[in-house]
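Let us practice reading a record.
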Amino acid sequence: MYAGAGLTLVATLFAFIDRAGLADHIRAGYPAYGPGEIDGAVTAYAVLLSVVGALGLLGWLGTVWAVRIGKGWARWLASGLFAIAICVALAALTVQDTNGEVGLAPLLGWLQVLPCAAGLATVVLLWRRPG
């Protein structure tokens, strides 16, 4: 679960690390946009991904806490959060912008999938253990 939290952190921070790549993606989709509009769109995506990442980290930490103190509903929590994460990752990969292209830069979209891999492992392990 800590690996999942780490992957969530990496996916979240990458929007700030690769602002140029996100700006290039927006510029390619909207060639008429000026620097101010591109910067505004990059900032909007960074804020959105930060909120998603913060909620993801809270989910991981809440699940760690529930498992650590032996709550029986921890596997249901992990399963529900995993389902939500899959929906968010699919949206990041497939939702089209008004220009007909995928709105989020593909690398950032695929980075949203990484924590889902750890989430799948977590859910499988929690359901396989007794209790």
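A brief commentary: DSSP finds six helices and no strands in the chain.
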